[in-house]
């Protein structure tokens, strides 16, 4: 995997300074403790189709701002977002917070770590 561009990393780091994050290793216990959590895969649709956490809903980063209110109108719903490693989900979490969602969390480590921790499809 090639290194990310500096401008992208600066954007991600800025978003991460404003959002809540949990490590992938923390997620299984959080899901067990709180069944209200909605797990959202923000990767590309083809990535989701190739494999995802069982029960995760696909709303890609490219459409999440457009589609989230129809799918999750209650802005206090706990939404836990993941992507491949935690960068795209951080950007999406930042955008959702700006839209008024109060319980948005990005999963650091993303799919790369989650696939070894939770059941997958």
UniProtKB/TrEMBL annotation:
A GO term for molecular function: thiosulfate-cyanide sulfurtransferase activity
Domain Rhodanese stretches: 33-121
UniProt keyword list: Transferase
Superkingdom classification of source: Bacteria
rRNA-binding in keyword set: no
Keyword Transferase: yes
Pfam families attached to this UniProt entry: Rhodanese
Classification via SMART domains: RHOD (SM00450)
SUPFAM superfamilies assigned: Rhodanese/Cell cycle control phosphatase
CDD domains, sorted: RHOD
Protein name per UniProt: Sulfurtransferase
């Amino acid at each position: 995997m090639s290194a990310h561009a500096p401008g992208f990393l600066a954007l991600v780091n800025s978003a991460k300074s404003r959002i809540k994050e949990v490590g992938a290793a923390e997620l299984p216990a959080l899901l067990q403790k709180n069944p209200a959590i909605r797990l959202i895969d923000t990767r590309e649709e083809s990535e989701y189709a190739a494999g995802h956490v069982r029960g995760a809903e696909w709303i890609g980063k490219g459409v999440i701002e457009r589609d989230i209110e129809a799918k999750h109108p209650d802005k206090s719903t706990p939404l836990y977002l993941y992507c491949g490693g935690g960068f795209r989900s951080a950007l999406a979490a930042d955008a959702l917070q700006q839209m008024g969602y109060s319980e948005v969390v990005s999963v650091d480590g993303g799919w790369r770590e989650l696939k070894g921790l939770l059941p997958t499809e």
